[in-house]
């Protein structure tokens, strides 16, 4: 069947972007959309994070015979002399994908959206992170003539059974860190009054305190490992999470899980709802209680809820052991692309490489630092050899 009348546009006006909500929601439901593909989530990414940072909207919209069949929200910002195009996110780096309905139109819609992003958004540099290998989007990205850099990663997803009860499912998993599900709860219960549950909407007064606790714990963890994450600094990501937790969109809002011991916070996690899948957003635990593995316990609580709701769980990118355990090593290869969309964009990568090479050259030529001599060191015994020149 032919395409009929096709239309592809790049939405740059936030008011027009917002007007898409009803059609977008319908498409998201039809396509079994992921959490970060929902209109509400994308709108909050824009209003809470991207717009305040001064980026400009570039949302690609594809229609056939007037019906919305694909959306791909992107943003563009200026970096020195170059315009850089990125997927719309809350500041964290997420999977890159298009929200597109299944059907005979799918391949031409994706091809049209890719060409539009590459050529009509005014970008010199196009960043396309974490694309699932083997998808149509990956095929288009990997064929671009000016790929300047790539990197590989893996992501994991738990496809939970619909025909077992929770205990049977857990028994089939074996052990994680020498413990089965339930063992950590029993151990911590012996240490005091243990609470492990999801916070309910009527407890929204507690959301701010818990979000602040998670982000503070994350900053401490990042600092201890010498990692810098811009999204952990400032209020934008905090505001975004709060808006997600307080959202009235039940299908895509976020949920907060907590662990307390004698009313003291020791672990928490936030997940985002999708049509058929829950997405991990962020979590943290108090390292003083590390021996009790509270981070793994809060994971059990959120996994149990997803299981009860009949939803799968997307753990995102990473090779952590708990992801392999709960997903039964259901691994997807991902590839990230840095693309020069214009010759000017290619120049940016060449300049970057020259700067890196110059730093390496200077480092190789720099004289080695003389070892420090302690103040109480004794003079070296004479060797009878002349000093070296």
UniProtKB/TrEMBL annotation:
Signal peptide: none annotated. One of its GO terms (molecular function) is transferase activity. SUPFAM superfamilies: Acyl-CoA N-acyltransferases (Nat). Keywords: Transferase. This is Acetyltransferase involved in cellulose biosynthesis, CelD/BcsL family. The keyword Transferase applies. It comes from the Bacteria. It holds the Pfam family Acetyltransf_6. Residues 185-323 form the BioF2-like acetyltransferase domain. InterPro entries: Acyl_CoA_acyltransferase, BioF2-like_GNAT_dom.
């Amino acid at each position: 069947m032919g395409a009929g009348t096709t239309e592809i546009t790049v939405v740059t006006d936030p008011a027009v972007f917002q007007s898409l909500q009803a059609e977008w929601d319908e498409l998201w439901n039809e396509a079994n959309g992921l959490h970060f593909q929902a209109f509400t989530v994308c709108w909050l990414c824009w209003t809470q994070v991207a717009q305040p940072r001064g980026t400009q909207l570039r949302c690609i919209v594809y229609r056939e015979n007037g019906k919305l069949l694909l959306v791909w929200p992107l943003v563009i910002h200026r970096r020195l002399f170059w315009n850089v195009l990125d997927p719309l996110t809350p500041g964290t780096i997420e999977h890159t994908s298009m929200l597109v309905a299944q059907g005979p139109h799918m391949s031409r819609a994706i091809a049209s959206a890719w060409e539009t992003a590459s050529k009509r958004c005014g970008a010199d540099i196009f960043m396309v992170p974490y694309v699932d290998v083997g998808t149509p989007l990956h095929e288009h990205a990997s064929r671009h003539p000016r790929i300047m850099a790539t990197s590989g990663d893996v992501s994991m997803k738990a496809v939970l059974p619909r025909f077992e009860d929770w205990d049977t499912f857990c028994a089939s998993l074996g052990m994680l860190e020498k413990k089965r599900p339930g063992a950590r709860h029993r151990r911590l219960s012996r240490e005091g009054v243990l609470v492990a549950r999801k916070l309910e909407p009527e407890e929204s007064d507690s959301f701010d305190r818990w979000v602040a606790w998670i982000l503070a714990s994350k900053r401490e963890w990042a600092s201890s490992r010498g990692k810098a994450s811009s999204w952990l600094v400032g209020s934008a990501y905090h505001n975004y999470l709060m808006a997600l937790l307080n959202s009235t969109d039940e299908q895509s809002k976020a949920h907060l899980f907590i662990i307390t011991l004698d009313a003291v916070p020791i672990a928490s996690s936030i997940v985002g709802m999708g049509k058929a899948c829950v997405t991990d957003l962020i979590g943290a635990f108090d390292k003083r209680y590390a021996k009790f593995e509270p981070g793994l316990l809060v994971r059990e609580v959120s996994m149990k809820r997803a299981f009860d709701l009949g939803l799968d769980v997307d753990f995102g990118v990473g090779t952590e052991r708990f992801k392999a355990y709960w997903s039964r090593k259901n691994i997807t290869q991902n590839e990230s692309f840095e693309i020069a969309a214009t010759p000017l964009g290619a120049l940016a990568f060449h300049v970057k490489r020259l700067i890196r090479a110059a730093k390496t050259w200077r480092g190789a030529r720099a004289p080695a630092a003389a070892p420090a001599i302690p103040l109480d060191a004794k003079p070296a015994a004479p060797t009878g050899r002349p000093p070296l020149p």
